[in-house]
Amino acid sequence: MARRSYSQITVRTNRYSVPARFIGRQLRVMLHASHLIVYDGQQVVAEHDRLFAKGGRRLELDHYLEVLIRKPGALPGATALEQARAAGKFTPVHDTWWAAACKAHGDRDGTRALIEVLLLTRHIPTEHLVTGLAAALRAGALTADAVALEARKAAEEDEQAAPEPAQHDNHEATVTFLTERRLVQLPATPGRCPR
Questions:
Q1: For the region Disordered, what residue ranges are annotated (predicted)?
Q2: pTM score, two decimals?
């Protein structure tokens, strides 16, 4: 069992994040050679690549979003944000949109709008969300709703561009089974019975 504090569990001297809603709950950890899985009962609540150096931290930004929406001022210096940037999950497009949102709405409300956008990744694939951020930025639409709309448009375009399964002619395919084939008469081989 792992102890939780600050939405983190400690496993062999290293700390790993878990969703904030699990603070105060007993969680179970399955430690594998290259990763670990955190469970609440039978439900998987977090997965992380395993840390091997002592005293390390592996934090997932998504695990803190419910807390950050209430305290948006904590986001700019958050270790989870730096790790998300380093992993490529928080892109320059995110940063550019965030800066524009802060300029338009003020730091607190602009950061809150960004956190609302980050919450969308639970329902919208990251590549579509980034496309939505870029499109919303070009349009000067600096709200999470505008990003969601643009991300859905990108998803629909990808869906329409996906190749359709090959169309078959109206002719039925002919399947020949070996048992249905006529046997070819071969010359008799010495020592074998002809068919």
A1: 153-172
A2: 0.75
Contact 154, 132 (CB under 8 A): yes
Taking CA atoms, 94 is separated from 7, 17, 37, in Å, by 24, 22, 28
Q: Provide CB contacts within 8 A for 146, sequence distance 6+.
A: 136, 139
- The predicted-structure confidence for 18-50, as pLDDT tens digits, reads as follows 999 998 888 999 999 999 999 999 999 999 999
Q: Distance between CA atoms of 147 and 140, rounded to whole angstroms?
A: 11
pLDDT 10s digits, 102-157 = 999 999 999 999 999 999 999 999 999 999 999 999 999 999 999 999 999 999 98
Question: Cβ neighbours of residue 18 under 8 Å, at least 6 residues apart?
Answer: 4, 7, 8, 9, 27, 38, 45, 46, 63
> Do 120 and 126 contact (CB within 8 A), yes or no?
no
Alpha-helical runs (H) found in 48-90: 65-70, 79-86
Whether 69 and 59 have beta carbons less than 8 Å apart is answered as: no
